[in-house]
Amino acid sequence: MNDVLHEAPAALLTINGVVIDDVAIAAEAAHHGDAPDPLDAARRALAVRELLRQRAVSLALLDEGALLDDAAVDALLDRELTHVPEPDRADCERYYAQHPARFRRNDIVYASHVLFAMTDRVPLAPLRQRAEAALADVVAAPDTFEAVARASSNCPSAEVGGSLGQLLRGDTVPEFETALFDTDGLGVLPKLVNTRFGFHIVRIERRVPGDAVPFDEAAAQIAAYLS
After folding, report:
1. Are 205 and 112 in contact (CB under 8 A)?
2. Same-domain status, 75 and 116
3. Number of domains in the chain
4. 159: confidence class by pLDDT, cuts 50, 70, 90
5. 181 part of a folded domain
6. Which reaction(s) does the protein catalyse, per the Swiss-Prot or TrEMBL entry (predicted)?
7. Looking at residues 4-11, what average pLDDT do you find?
């Protein structure tokens, strides 16, 4: 609401031509006795209320000259807060440029992991502590990864030293996929990856780059996401 609030002489307020007199201000001030300046607080409250009333009238949510009521306020807030403008091409292009890793295809990652699985029988805090300790050991001595996987991982891949082989986007749960594909470099990731299955120590062995999805192919998906 780019409206103008200004004080008129004699302590009156005018809000876009609507005058709020000193009687109304004094009455409202009685509700702001705890404020440092009750009159100032009253003026601000009445100004906001009048601006809301005028906005409701402009949207045909309230008749001209009618007092603002709770129903009109609810209708106004519902309209203003739920109405999200449709993204235009510039919005979509900006998002595409800011998130290049999300618009690729045929990227391949070769990875291994050590899973500390969450179950109803295992308290979460001690499980995380075990995973953090194991991660610290592996970061300090990367050549022990396979041995740690065989000894500690709760995934069947433990039998092959934690190897998951080659992975494409869509092969794993989203949080694990993000850790694999939205990062760069090789080796053990410096932080645990938390998924619905538990805590993972992840090692990236190889990356085979795919290609970028052209903007025109991704535009509809981006617009739907931003809407």
Report:
1. yes
2. no
3. 2
4. very high
5. yes
6. [protein]-peptidylproline (omega=180) = [protein]-peptidylproline (omega=0)
7. 43
Q: Does pTM surpass 0.70?
A: no
Give dist(CA 25, CA 37) in Å, integer: 12
AA identity, residue 154? N
- What token pair was written down for 223? 């617009």
Which of 136-144's residues contact partners 24+ apart within 8 Å by CB, and which partners? 138/114, 138/188, 138/201, 138/203, 139/188, 139/190, 142/187, 142/188, 142/203
- Answer for the pair 112, 163: CB distance below 8 angstroms, yes or no: yes
Q: Token pair 């209320």 is at which residue?
A: 49
105, two tokens: 């295809």
pLDDT range class, residue 149, cuts 50, 70, 90:
very high
Interval 157-186 mean pLDDT: 92
Q: Which residues pair with 195 in a beta bridge?
A: 198
Q: Which has the higher per-residue pLDDT, 115 or 40?
A: 115
Identify the burial level of 120 via C-beta atoms within 10 angstroms of its C-beta, where 0-12 means exposed, 13-18 middle and 19 or more buried.
exposed
DSSP 23: H
Structural domain ending residue among the three candidates 82, 117, 139: 82
For residues 135 and 189, state if they share a domain.
Answer: yes
Please state the rounded mean pLDDT for residues 167-184. Answer: 90
